[in-house]
Amino acid sequence: MKHRIVVLGAGYAGVYAAGTLARRLSPADTAITVVNAEPDFVERMRLHQLAAGQDIASRRLTDIFAGTGVKLRVARVTAVDPGRGTVWMTERDGDGLPHELPYDTLLYTLGSAVADHGVPGVATYAFDVAGRPSALRLRERLDTLEALGQGGNVLVVGEGLTGIEAATEIAESRPGLSVALAARGELGAWLSPGARGHLRRAFDRLGITVHEHTTIEAVEPTRAIGADGASFASDATVWAAGFAVHPIAAASGLEVAGTGRIVVDGTMRSVSHPDVYAAGDSAHAIDGNGRPLPMSCASAGVTVRQAADAIVGSLTGRKIPSTSLTYYGNHISLGRRDGIMQLVDGEWHAKSWSVRGRTAARTKAGILRGALWGVAHPTFGMPKRRRRLATGLARSTERVAV
What does the similarity note say (predicted)? Predict the structure, then answer.
């Protein structure tokens, strides 16, 4: 009987992992299934561009996995039962009823979604760029504002990477709109002095108004309300004030951190259920400095490589390579022709130097192209002879059947 590997989520981490496992494990011993709510791969790192009005081609997951042996189930995960080794899901084009999918090894890469922090009006009136449908909804709203020909006010809430990229992209792509950003602290406070100055000059060049030390406590149809009662006109409020993971992991009985992320060891294996691994935003993985890695594309890359190596090693009886779980910094796009590449030290303090301007923009564009190419070719270089499973790792007869 084949060992059943189920990968939940087909973002960058999930697609990379499934392709790596298909490339390195023998299909005679393993059956790999990917479960994803949508039929297309979403370039999440470019959704702010999509919202701003740029065209981003989607890729069908069936095309990506064609010829790999990976089976795709387009379904929404509703629950995980690690005690029984099953996933509950609702098929996208099915009967609407929950169905069971058994596994022997589970890789959880469901990622994250926007966090409203309980702020009134966010769920009803705000927009976000955390998913393709929501980014397209924002794009439609911005199109409407431009069509009215009366300007229009856009307020981006959040001074993190997503907020900065969304504000600059919208301002550059839609100069007829008035764009502002509400920051809880100082804009770019975590950057080096040179990078911080560059960021402020970019905002000035693009005409973006910055409201520092401003906490938004309510969102209404045409304005946002600050903690001090100040009113900010907004025909489109873009919420970029943080992300949260889906509560599925916490509800499953897996050990999770206070954030709901799955607590894993250095190999990305659940500390409570050895048949479960996690990577990307879903994993509570500890950096060498003792702190959990932040939710970021950089963290996703290092954790999913470690998870894939660990699964292959554990199933084939080989030594599991150890990846350095280190956070190195971020690339920030400031529109299409400007950017910042800021590296950090072991304590996540910004290093004194940074790459800025067109060079940083081109570097990030190259990274995104490379990531997309890797997704589109998940089994590039697939060996003719792939590794067989170690003796005794066939499918457990104690697992329930579909």
Answer: Belongs to the NADH dehydrogenase family.
**Residue 40's pLDDT is what?**
93
Indicate whether 351 belongs to any domain: no
How many other C-beta atoms are found inside a 10 Å radius of the C-beta of residue 354? 20
Convert the pLDDT of each residue in 374-388 to its tens digit: 887 776 665 655 788
Q: Are residues 73 and 33 in contact, defined by beta-carbon separation less than 8 angstroms?
A: yes
- Residue whose structure tokens are 């600059």: 168
pTM of the model: 0.91
The residues, ordered by sequence, that sit 6+ positions from 55 with a Cβ below 8 Å of its Cβ are none
**Residues sharing a CB contact under 8 Å with residue 148, sequence separation 6 or more, in sequence order:** none
Please state, in angstroms and as integers, the Cα–Cα distance from residue 134 to each residue in 4, 169, 239, 351, following that order. Answer: 33, 16, 11, 35
Question: Of 228, 234, 240, which is closest to residue 155 (Cα–Cα)?
Answer: 234
Angstrom distance (rounded) from CA 129 to CA 49: 9
Please tell me whether residues 20 and 166 are part of one structural domain.
no
DSSP state, 282? G
Considering the domain boundaries, does residue 394 fall inside one? no
Cβ neighbours for 10, distance < 8 A, ≥ 6 positions apart: 18, 34, 35, 36, 41, 61, 72
Structure tokens at 218: 């309510």
Q: Is residue 321 one of the residues assigned to a domain?
A: yes
Structure tokens belonging to residue 141 = 């709203």
Task: Please give the residue range of the domain that contains residue 131.
Answer: 120-239
Domain contains 27:
yes
What is the number of domains present in the chain? 2
Phi then psi for residue 77, to 5 deg, are -70, 130
Angstrom distance (rounded) from CA 307 to CA 299:
12
Same domain, 166 and 312: no
Amino acid found at 340 = I
At position 118, the amino acid (one-letter code) is G
Coil vs helix vs strand at 390: coil
The answer to whether the CB of 69 falls within 8 A of the CB of 44 is no
